[in-house]
Amino acid sequence: MKLGLVSLGCDKNTVDSERLLAALVCHGAERVTDLATADVVVVNTCGFIDAAKEESIETLLEVARLKEFGDVQAVVALGCLVERYRAELEPSLPEVDLFIGLRDVDTLIPALQGRGLLGPRLEDHPGVRLPIVDRPHVRYLKVSEGCDHGCAFCAIPLWRGRHRSFGLDALVAEAGRLEAQGAVELNLVAQDLAFYGREFRDGTGLDTLLRRLLDETDIPWFRLLYIYSAGLRDPLVELIASEHRVLPYIDMPIQHASDAVLQRMRRPERRAKLVERIDGLRAAIPDLVLRTTVLVGFPGETDEDFRALLEFMEDVEFDRLGAFAFSPQAGTRAAEMEEHYLPDDIRQARLEETLEVQRAISARRMEREVGRVHEVLVDRHEDSRLVGRSRGQADDVDGVTMLAGDGDWTPGSLVEARVTAASDYDLEAEILRGRRAAPREPKPRRPLPMAAIGLEGSWGR
Prior knowledge:
Strand 14 (373-382) and strand 15 form a beta hairpin. The protein is of the alpha/beta class. The chain folds into 4 domains: 2-127, Methylthiotransferase, N-terminal domain (Rossmann fold), CATH 3.40.50; 134-251, Transcription Regulator spoIIAA (2-Layer Sandwich), CATH 3.30.750; 257-368, Transcription Regulator spoIIAA; 373-435, CATH 2.40.50.140. It contains 13 helices and 18 strands. The chain has helices at residues 11-25, 50-64, 66-69, 80-92, 108-114, 156-160, 168-180, 206-216, 234-242, 259-265, 271-284, 303-316, 344-367, and strands spanning 2-7, 30-31, 40-45, 74-79, 98-100, 138-142, 144-145, 164-165, 185-189, 221-225, 246-251, 289-296, 320-325, 373-382, 385-390, 401-404, 414-422, 427-435. Residues 441-461 have low confidence and may be disordered. Helices cover 33% and strands 22% of the residues. Helix 7 crosses helix 8 (206-216) and helix 12 (303-316) runs parallel beside helix 13. The chain has a 6-stranded parallel beta sheet.
């Protein structure tokens, strides 16, 4: 079976897609990049906000057209959107052959086998993941699933369920396999990294996992993505500050800075606590890069609330900031606040103003980097130039560093480069020296079943 795979949404979806790809390949699937030549196309959907839902549906419709003009025999909708909206999707998208939610993903392989599209297992599944993009040096490690936070605007707990951490040994083994596949940067992801290990009740936390990863792999870069401020306790902060391989980069979503809005959002922090936390982090971690996410236009947000957010942004000067306009999600508390909804044009205007304020902040902070020397990971060649990212630039969501200098540096190489120019979000730098990407021999590890690395059901069985 020739398999086409489209992965939409967040990095956690990327991890799920890589696991799915490995499971299907173990049953004889061959991945193709030209979707029109595939026998089966699987779309791992996202349902986080309205724009993501629309993108998922448009992608499914576009792929379904290939059944008329290509070799495609079946289209599979899988993942978050299906889990949440299956009842609405199935009658409205007859072009799609299979709808597989998060809780019944183990039915995919038997369903494809039943249609004669997939064969039996070819070999024991070693518990690996296969990269879905041609950049094996940048990988993601999902350390837990689900979420226990009760944010009023977020539907993720409704389809991902309660928080549950994956086992330490399984995660370290998975990281070792990603290292064997060429991982140079490993991004740790979860709905809230700070919750890792909480239910073990034995003192295990994110710092415990990081120390195991540092001791038992040689991966050069570990990056922490999405961690609530309350979870940034002293042992973790001290580890980030002292370990060169743990990047001084924290993605800490605040969502807002007006106490009134934070309360309605059911967020645990308040403005004064956020200021205290940010000041403490910057004092403790040298060269810290701080990223956040904000949500504007929440029901009942007044102009005063919005101005308070912009003033906070100006005072704090986040290095990186992503912003979204509120869109109601069925089943959430915010969806019940309809009488307080703001008009779409106001929400959009506030989003644009927020991004413009952050653009100016980013430009000022980036200009300060000129003349400094950074360690940069080479990502790709583009128009005869090298494109990389510094330790302070996360994959996909931040800017890039355009590199100049001698040497045929391959993707995955780490170089030292002096910054020569800056724009609003990107840097230009000249390579001084570096080390080329090279295969590394990870420590031998026993095979693990898929269930051990967080997959419920029987993907690999």
